[in-house]
Amino acid sequence: PAYTTLLVTWDPLITDYQAVRDRVLDCLSKSDSDTTRGAARLHRIPVWYSTNSGPDLEAVARHAGITIDEVIRIHSETRYLVYALGFAPGFAFLGETDERIAMPRKQTPRARVPAGSVAIANRQTAIYPLESPGGWQLIGLSPVRLFNPQNLSLLKTGDAVQFCPVTEAEYREMAGGTS
């Protein structure tokens, strides 16, 4: 599933198109399409917001015409909905970011974004679950592991996420002192 689409696959040698179409339409007519009623779970995710942990935090503040503290307050006061999972295992697309701190993706993506990086791109925010390339604006780090091969993704589509600011010392303690 994604924002507005769903991939349906079938074997045309076993089931014909009309049968699949009728089944999909039947399911859609019975579905609860109101995703705003409530999330499955609320995750409170600690974030160390700083220009040391989020190299683009100052640029986001400058782009918005506000202080770094205001960016942190706005980002952490908003409750986000997990819209979709993708890009990388455990990567959750969260929205919507307050328009005051929305900022476009970087024109040239970074070759390496550390795991746990909290980022903004346009009206979305996310946490990079694994080290990977990426073009989002980095504003902080979270010690929370979003993906592991046994439990897969911590976040599920429809869940809610609230970011909670923590100090560098608190972040390092939660991360096991290894970051």
- Low-confidence sequence ranges: none
Number of domains: 1
CATH architecture descriptor name: Beta Barrel
CATH topology: Cyclophilin
Task: Indicate the structural class.
Answer: alpha+beta
Distinctive features:
4 helices, elongated, alpha+beta, 179 residues, Cyclophilin, 11 strands
Structural overview:
The two termini are about 35 Å apart. Strand 9 (about 145-150) and strand 10 form a beta hairpin. It is elongated, with a radius of gyration of 19 Å. The longest helix has 14 residues, at about 15-30. With about 180 residues, it is of the alpha+beta class. It has helices spanning about 15-30, 55-65, 70-75, 170-175, and strands at about 40-50, 80-85, 90-95, 110-115, 115-120, 125, 130-135, 135-140, 145-150, 150-155, 160-165.
Question: What's the topology here?
Answer:
Blueprint: H1 17-30, E1 42-49, H2 57-64, H3 68-77, E2 79-85, E3 92-95, E4 110-113, E5 117-121, E6 124-127, E7 132-134, E8 137-141, E9 147-148, E10 152-153, E11 160-165, H4 168-174
Parallel strand pairs: 1-11
Antiparallel strand pairs: 1-8, 2-3, 2-11, 3-6, 4-7, 5-6, 5-8, 9-10
Describe, in short, the structure shown:
The chain has 179 residues and is of the alpha+beta class. The protein has helices spanning 17-30, 57-64, 68-77, 168-174, and strands at residues 42-49, 79-85, 92-95, 110-113, 117-121, 124-127, 132-134, 137-141, 147-148, 152-153, 160-165.
